[in-house]
Protein 1
Amino acid sequence: MKRENEIKVNWCPVCNQGWVEIKMDIGEKKMILVCDECDSTWDTPEKMSLNDTNDYRPIEKTRNPTPKEIRDLGWEKYIIKDINDFMRTFPIDS
Ligand SMILES: [Zn+2]
């Protein structure tokens, strides 16, 4: 069973309430980044700021990518490996 936090790449800069995760868009056959809270999307992990979100929202047609799909795109280096470690360097106001 794959744990969901294996594909988190960032804390959402838009809503500050959710994790941005890698998803596979089934219709477009491409990987995107989606906030699990506000559904903002991004094209690449390199361009993830407040102003670079897409209007495009394929939320109904996404699935989790396979580890191979993530590796093929070279995105595995963006995946947060230790959530606690990440949170220490990225404090969230509550
Ligand atoms: Zn969000």
Protein 2
Amino acid sequence: MSSIFRFLKKRMLFCATLSVLVIAAGGFLVSCDNGDSFDAKLEEARIALDHGNYAQARAILESLPQTEMVLEYLSNAIAGGELNMDTLNIIATMDELDDEGKEGSVDIIGTIIGNENDELSCEDIEAKLAAVNEAIGLFEQIMDLKPNGIADLTEGQKLQLGLLSMTRTVLVLAKLISNKYNASSEICAAIVMTEEWIKANRHLFPTVEPTQDDLDSIDEDLHYISVAIDAVDENNDMLDDYNEFKNELDSDSNDHVTADELNLYIANM
Ligand SMILES: [Ca+2]
């Protein structure tokens, strides 16, 4: 699975550099504006996003007509503010995981969305699931604006959607594990979504019990991840890695994940 993330990291570095150039150019272009126009507000939101002022960016974007660009930035603001998923953080986390030699998809997402000790409280899991659904929903609104739906998303949008989808699958898994882990206790203890923690504690949640909605959500995520990978044809390792990830979840390769397959995934981690 490692080269998916190396690739995404390389990609994000490129996108980050590009966005700095775009912001620099944009700032110059709107510098004579009156500050109230759509473009000026969008620029203000873009700068807030770039500085990690996600709440400010969100407030500005929610006041604007919901164009494709506004919807994409709004999704970025939610990912940054609610999921700790800003580009710099992802790159730093990937570097850290590279150094430690652990690059599982669960680890990388679990480390980003967890607190400073990588923990996810029950409240965190609920709030972050709502946020990731909202962030993905904004890309689905963009698809609705397009004649060919998801196929018409830009490469960058497909990659962002793929990353959000991996995050949602990890959060759905976190919810299912937390439900079992806390089944017999009065307080709801935090869990950690790393392979190391799951291996050490999985005897406490020998089986998880997904609802049909949970399984549908994972199926949709696998589809979006697949679209993200297919969007890029310059690196064939990507497809190999994606298939490895997908096969770990969908062991009979029928594009649907069952409860048994989910439990197998945890057991084989
Ligand atoms: Ca299957």
